[in-house]
Amino acid sequence: MYYSTLFTNSRLYTSKEYKATSIVDKVGSGDCYMAGLIYGFYKKMHPKVILEFATAADFTKLFVQGDYTNKRVVEKK
Questions:
Q1: Domain boundaries, the chain
Q2: pLDDT tens, 20-40?
Q3: How many CB atoms lie within 10 A of CB 60?
Q4: What is the mean pLDDT of residues 48-63?
Q5: pTM: predicted TM-score of the whole model, two decimal places
Q6: CA-based R_g, the chain, Å
Q7: Distance (Å, rounded) from C-alpha 63 to C-alpha 2?
Q8: DSSP state letters, 26-73
């Protein structure tokens, strides 16, 4: 089971839970998480959206071989 939390503006947010039976590569997943947080705060997203975005980026990286992800941010216009 995988999830994360974010405490900001005197409030605690908890992401949804992810489950995996196997992982390809953990290297770089923390970097993806931090990149997701930075991106979300930079874009002034709601904290819950930031947390879900960062957590999904981190979890998705667990199934990609190598130091970095091959995923892209898709923005709605």
A1: 5-61
A2: 888 777 776 788 899 999 999
A3: 16
A4: 88
A5: 0.79
A6: 13
A7: 13
A8: -TTHHHHHHHHHHHHHHTT--HHHHHHHHHHHHHHHTTS-SSS-----
